[in-house]
């Protein structure tokens, strides 16, 4: 579904992505792990076009997207929930969801009911300002918003950050369910090992701007040392 | 342009500076009286441009209303030397008193203004437009103030004289002004190259980081603001007796715009570049404005836009910069 | 009864000022561009009407043409110049400043530097509440109110407005959601310019049209949005009300020069005490 080939990217003078090679199969849930500052968020931003790659290719659904602008990439069916959620706090839940609809051709008021099936809590709070929600609720809103147009793939950056464990579990369940029922491909950047073990099908580890190891989730379950090797300080 | 080593660049800049000075010193030998008197005025404009370059290029303070300082200096000089200020008469109407008062008035005004602006964390564009508004208002006040001449301003301003030496000769005046300009240039250069100047550059480039290092950016900005304004006021103070008149346009919006254009075209980051920008634009204007009349300003405006877009360092900025960029 | 007339005049000024300021704040809030040429867009709108008056078409075609013409000019300026400068905030100010000089000089070249007058298109006086008041001024207020309401509707109720407000709030996230920010910028700039052009056209019969009139509206409009808050539409109403109201009041009681000084001082004090403006939130400073 998504292939990243030898991508280099930098912020100003500092080179962050140093030849990243990654691929994610359709309907797969892959977790991207690594310590802070290794380039995981930068990779997501580069895939979404928020940062132009210096070189390399990014292929999504058999189409090259590395030269496209962010909104064009979004229109191709790639949704992104950044670290910290970036909810429009002054807008209501309803308006946030409508915003998610804007890239599709349908009127923004036709939000598919399915969204509320997965996230019942949002139905109750339609007209509440998103800024008043708790972290966990905001995260659900962000994911719901990313999903209203039935994208082909979802990029999630540290969804569990700053959220209470029970809600993290809920989110993990919802993601697994959506993947099972709709075949949504998910790339998940996470530092929360439990969530990764619960949700992901495979893992990739990033270090100093490169992918250094890839393995299916069973390998990680059986052998703790893989995680400690790449995540410990 | 071929690349030079740092030392080579420095030497080249030095040679250019001396060449410019040389040309200016030798100019009166040409004997074109009209041109000499024009150039005298242009050199004063050059000082004015340098004052804006101090604020804008070195300190990063964009001032859309810079003429207000020039005009204030000019008016104070005029009022003092014409004896129009109650309590200041007789020997106190001498030139040096006028210049002193002009600089003082502008300095005080700019300190007050600076305190207000910089401690209020009024940044970049807001500050620029606030100064614009001040310039517009100042011009309006001057136009409506009968005592200081209203729309027509004041005329018959006594020429410069120090002790009993009245500067009347064309060439003498030229060299005098040139000496003043050189003095200002060296003084400002010294200030900007000092540790103070380095800190100022740090504040310009990244104010937050400079503050983390413990520098009170507002205070530095006020100081440089006052210096820049005072140099402008000094330019105004010299301008008045040379042209022998002052008018509200010296305070206002279009003159503020002109100096902005000179400095942008010449190069805001280098004193000499700004100085040359003023002189050369004015020279061009005196040649072309007869030809092109109204179109001149329009072309200048478009040139300015092109400069902003493609030559942010100005035409001479790179040439005259001491450091290899 | 003279008081009612003065109040109506004040209201007139406030509404037109809000029209101008709205364009400015939309452009600034969305694109983070301070359009120094905004006053000149006002100017171009006024001179469009002068032109139609001079070639014999009269006022009304000019009123319809003005927002179109000025909108197109705005679009052209955005395309040629501004879109290269989006990362360079200070440079957009300077570039638009340069354009304002060129535009103003262009007007001088074509129409001359002197002030021109055109006949008010609705010369009748309306009679109500015991006073006589020019019908045309009432018309202006009506037009201004309608446009302000339409703008609010567009921004608060339509999909376009939703997208625009998202871009104002968080440009990157809006792009991630599929909003074409470049197109949004172009549309916004065009719309903002057209607003200014309309304001200029509408004011033209009431003033002596001279090349400096743009600046005369730009500064108060800018002060109004600084005071009201640069990220809010509601702030424009408040800022415009205060600036316009104070200016009219003090002009009437003392003199226009005094009014300018007072308005300016009030604006400065407000901004000093509350840099984000009266209605602004801290994020937009």
Describe it for me?
The complex is a heterotrimer of chains A (233), B (325) and C (285). With 233 residues, chain A is an alpha/beta fold. Chain A has helices at residues 40-47, 70-75, 93-101, 114-118, 120-124, 135-147, 165-182, 193-199, 217-222, 224-231; strands spanning 2-11, 14-24, 29-33, 55-60, 63-64, 78-81, 153-157, 185-189, 202-207, 210-216. Chain A has one domain (2-85, 148-231): P-loop containing nucleotide triphosphate hydrolases (Rossmann fold), CATH 3.40.50. Chain A has 10 helices and 10 strands. In chain A, helix 3 (93-101) runs parallel beside helix 6. Chain A is globular, with a radius of gyration of 17 Å. With 325 residues, chain B is an all-alpha fold. Chain B has a domain at 41-253. Chain B has helices spanning 6-26, 33-58, 67-81, 95-119, 124-144, 170-193, 195-205, 207-212, 217-243, 253-266, 271-292, 295-310, 317-320; strands spanning 154-155, 161-162, 165-166, 245-246. The radius of gyration of chain B is 20 Å and the shape is globular. The relative contact order of chain B is 0.19. Chain C is mainly α and 285 residues long. Chain C has one domain. In chain C, 74% of the residues lie in helices and 3% in strands. Chain C contains 11 helices and 2 strands. Chain C has helices spanning 2-31, 38-54, 59-80, 89-111, 135-157, 159-169, 171-176, 181-203, 213-228, 233-253, 256-273; strands at residues 125-128, 131-134. Chain C has a two-stranded antiparallel ribbon. The radius of gyration of chain C is 19 Å and the shape is globular. Classes of the chains: A alpha/beta (233), B mainly alpha (325), C mainly alpha (285).
């Amino acid at each position: 579904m998504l292939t990243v080939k030898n991508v280099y990217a930098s912020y100003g003078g500092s080179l962050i992505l140093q030849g990243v090679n990654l691929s994610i199969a359709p309907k797969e849930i892959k977790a991207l792990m690594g310590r802070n500052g290794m380039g995981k968020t930068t990779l997501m931003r580069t895939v979404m076009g928020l940062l132009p790659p210096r070189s390399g290719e990014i292929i999504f659904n058999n189409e090259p997207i590395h030269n496209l602008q962010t909104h064009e990439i979004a229109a191709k069916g790639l949704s992104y929930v950044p670290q910290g959620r970036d909810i429009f706090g002054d807008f209501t839940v309803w308006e946030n969801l409508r915003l998610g609809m804007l890239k599709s051709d349908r009127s923004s008021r036709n939000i598919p009911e399915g969204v509320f099936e997965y996230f019942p809590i949002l139905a109750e709070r339609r007209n509440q300002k998103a800024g008043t929600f708790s972290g966990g609720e905001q995260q659900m809103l962000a994911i719901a918003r990313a999903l209203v147009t039935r994208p082909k793939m979802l990029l999630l950056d540290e969804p569990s950050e700053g959220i209470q464990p029970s809600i993290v579990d809920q989110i993990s369940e919802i993601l697994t369910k959506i993947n099972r029922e709709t075949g949504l491909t998910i790339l998940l950047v996470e530092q929360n090992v439990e969530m990764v073990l619960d949700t992901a099908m495979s893992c990739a580890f990033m270090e100093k701007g490169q992918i250094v190891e890839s393995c299916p989730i069973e390998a990680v379950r059986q052998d703790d040392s893989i995680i400690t090797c790449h995540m410990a300080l | 342009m071929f690349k030079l080593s740092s030392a080579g660049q420095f030497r080249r800049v030095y040679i250019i500076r001396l060449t410019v000075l040389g040309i200016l010193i030798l100019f009166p030998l040409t004997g074109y009286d009209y041109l000499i008197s024009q150039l005298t005025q242009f050199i004063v404009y050059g000082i004015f441009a340098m004052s804006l370059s101090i604020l804008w290029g070195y300190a990063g303070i964009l001032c859309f209303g810079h003429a207000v300082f020039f005009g204030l200096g000019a008016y104070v000089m005029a009022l003092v030397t014409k004896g129009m200020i109650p309590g200041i008469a007789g020997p106190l109407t001498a030139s040096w008193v006028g210049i002193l008062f002009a600089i003082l008035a502008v300095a005080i005004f700019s300190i007050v203004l600076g305190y207000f602006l910089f401690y209020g964390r009024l940044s970049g564009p807001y500050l620029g437009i606030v100064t614009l508004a001040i310039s517009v208002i100042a011009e309006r006040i001057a136009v409506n103030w009968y005592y200081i001449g209203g729309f027509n301003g004041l005329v018959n301003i006594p020429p410069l004289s120090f002790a009993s030496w009245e500067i009347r000769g064309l060439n003498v005046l030229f060299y005098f002004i040139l000496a003043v300009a050189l003095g200002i240039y060296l003084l400002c250069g010294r200030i900007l190259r000092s540790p103070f100047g380095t800190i100022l550059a740090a504040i310009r480039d990244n104010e937050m980081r400079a503050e983390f290092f413990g520098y009170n950016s507002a205070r530095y900005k006020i100081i440089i603001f006052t210096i820049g304004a005072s140099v402008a006021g000094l330019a105004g103070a010299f301008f008045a007796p040379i042209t022998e008149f002052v008018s509200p346009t010296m305070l206002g919006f279009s003159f503020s715009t002109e100096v902005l254009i000179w400095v942008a075209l010449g190069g805001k980051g280098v004193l000499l570049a700004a100085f040359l920008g003023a002189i050369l634009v004015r020279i061009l204007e005196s040649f072309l404005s007869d030809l092109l009349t109204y179109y001149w300003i329009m072309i200048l405006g478009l040139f300015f836009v092109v400069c902003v877009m493609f030559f942010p360092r100005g035409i001479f900025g790179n040439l005259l910069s001491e450091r290899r960029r | 009864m003279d008081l009612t007339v003065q109040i109506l005049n004040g209201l007139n000024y406030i509404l037109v000022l809000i029209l101008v300021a709205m364009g400015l704040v939309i452009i600034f809030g969305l694109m983070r561009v301070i359009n120094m040429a905004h006053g000149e867009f006002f100017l171009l709108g006024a001179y469009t009407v002068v032109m139609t008056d001079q070639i014999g078409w009269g006022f009304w075609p000019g009123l319809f043409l003005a927002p179109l013409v000025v909108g197109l000019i705005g679009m052209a300026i955005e395309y040629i110049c501004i879109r290269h400068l989006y990362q360079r905030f200070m440079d957009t100010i300077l570039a638009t400043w340069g354009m304002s000089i060129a535009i103003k000089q262009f007007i001088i070249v074509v129409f001359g530097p002197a002030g021109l007058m055109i006949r008010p298109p609705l010369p009748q006086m309306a009679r109500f509440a015991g006073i006589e008041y020019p019908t045309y001024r009432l018309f202006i207020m009506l037009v201004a109110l309608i446009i302000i309401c339409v703008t609010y509707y567009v921004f608060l109720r339509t999909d376009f407005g939703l997208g625009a407000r998202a871009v104002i709030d968080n440009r990157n996230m809006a792009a991630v959601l599929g909003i074409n920010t470049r197109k949004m910028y172009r549309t916004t700039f065009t719309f903002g310019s057209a607003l200014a052009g309309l304001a200029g056209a509408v004011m033209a019969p009431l003033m002596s049209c001279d090349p400096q009139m743009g600046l005369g509206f730009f500064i108060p409009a800018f002060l109004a949005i600084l005071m009201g808050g640069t990220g809010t539409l509601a702030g424009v109403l408040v800022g415009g009300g205060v600036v316009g109201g104070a200016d009219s009041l003090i002009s009437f009681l003392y003199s226009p020069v005094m009014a300018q000084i007072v308005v300016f001082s009030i604006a400065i004090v407000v901004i000093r005490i509350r840099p984000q403006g009266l209605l602004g939130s801290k994020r937009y400073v």
